[in-house]
Write a structure and sequence with these properties.
The chain is α+β, with helices and mostly antiparallel strands. The chain contains 7 helices and 4 strands, in the order βααβααβααβα.
């Protein structure tokens, strides 16, 4: 069964010149396609919607500040088991715990600036795609 997921290449990935490498890893996965892609600096209202479940947590404000600090690449990826697959490709949030070969394992430096976001479920993917690409919903 084909799925869609939202992927964000975060400001640290853009600043470090890793967009091509990270997009290439996604594109090379057989059966996955990128159906929407946009470079944009995320504004606070978009980030507040996206991270609504984290309001009040100690990392919330630093996260919103980081995510609005420069351009990000937002994309929608489609394919078989793509939600689970992109999360495996990304690796765990902590780059030290992330395996070599994963995006965070190969390029991650600190937990807060962790290069990539990928939806964690079909429900999250649907909600997040509506925020970033309302025309696709």
């Amino acid at each position: 069964m084909s799925q869609r997921t939202l992927v964000l290449l975060k400001p640290d990935a853009v600043r470090r010149g890793l967009v091509g490498e990270l997009l290439g890893r996604i594109e090379r996965k057989a059966g996955w396609t990128i159906s929407a892609l946009e470079l944009r600096t995320l504004d606070r209202p978009t980030l507040e919607q996206h991270y609504a479940e984290h309001v009040g947590r100690p990392f919330y404000e630093p996260l919103v500040e980081f995510m609005s600090s420069g351009p990000s690449v937002a994309l929608v990826v489609e394919g078989e088991r793509v939600i689970e697959g992109v999360r495996a490709l990304a690796g765990p949030t902590d780059p030290i715990a992330a395996a070599p070969g994963s995006i965070r394992g190969d390029f991650g430096t600190i937990t807060r600036e962790n290069l990539i976001h990928a939806s964690d479920s079909e429900q999250s993917a649907e909600r997040e795609i509506k925020i970033f690409f309302p025309g696709l919903a």
